[in-house]
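Subject: for your reference before the review

Hello V.,

The reviewers asked for a structural picture of the protein, and I figured it would be easier to keep everything in one thread rather than splitting it across files. Below is the amino acid sequence we used in the manuscript, unchanged from the supplementary table.
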Amino acid sequence: MSTTSLLAGVRVLDFGRYIAGPYCAALLAGLGAEVIRIERIDGGEDRYLLPLADGADGGALFLQVNQGKRGMTLDLRAAGAREVVRRLAANADVVVANLPGPSLEALGLDYPSLSAIRADIVLTTVSAYGSGPGPWSGRPGFDGVGQVMSGAAYMSGGPELPVKSYVPWVDFLTASLAALGTLAALVDRSRTGTGRHVEGSLLASALTVGNSTLIEEAVTEVGRVATHNRAQVAAPADVFATRDGWIIVQVVGAGLFRRWARLVERADLIDEGRFATDAQRGKHRDELCEIMAAWCSSRTSEEALAALAGAGVPGAPVLSPAETLIHPQVAALGLLAPTSYPGIDAAIPTAGFPVRLGFEDVGAARRAPRLGEHTDEILREVGFDAAEIATLRRDGVV
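And here is what came back from the structure prediction:
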């Protein structure tokens, strides 16, 4: 097996920050693109989030979303930076930047400026609320704004307190969709020779995930409120306590409901009219979940999950991060590959490319870069000689 080369020959400049831009570029790196991470001379704030060891210049988030890249530093506001950007862009196929529109223009990273350097370049940008018309266009935002504005946080937790997910799913979804759009633009470019501007936004991504709930509300005005982990459109579906932990059980559809009813020795429920459909079972969810809760309470998590698996009913344990790291299914699939990073003694369990592509190994072949690790190397590749590089360093440009 060989490392994937699906995007071999594609060069990506990553001016991203935090997650949505950098992880988009990391996905392209996982498919074989050459990705150059460009950051401030002192390192961006995202480099140091979730620090892992004293003296190490990479935190947990940075090491994940910048794997597979080379790295260089550049002060984009320095007098000589425009020429560096020009040479980099002239040798690039894709530029990724999740910066506000005015910042893109000020730094010469907007599409008109980049396409003047290379006509077939693809620019991929991500914003919080989208560009163009709209009273909130241009406002800054992180993952949480997508969660709260899409209705997702309102429908999580309970009526007394909306709950934002701890993991930044909106950021990672936006990065994935931006990478998909970038791939589509590259396919189109191979046919037409034309570049384009690919745009994603946190709000658009979150609305996509929550769209069915919004459709239901628009049509039926049902006015749903949160019920913690308990599903509302099918049952039983909730997180249940066992003798030694918690498990999730999700019964959706008539076939699963029949299997579940037989498993908990309540086959009499199968022919009851009030449980005939998912919608009706959702309305009577409390009664069905009480039956499931009682069944789980007399069993260990292992016993309950074995019985559920035997009956073909979906269930899984609620794991802590420490438990996730050692779960046998995670280990068997090699989903978290141990990697190393200078200054960190422990192995770093890094999630690689999340999709398998047949016979090829897909994923990053290199760790995330140290701050400025490949600056001189990259500058030489785009035509700067030793004297020019020395001048750029003297003037604080790189």
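For the response letter, the relevant points are probably these. Residues 14 and 25 are 6 Å apart (CA to CA). The mean pLDDT is 95.

Happy to draft the paragraph if you're swamped.

O.
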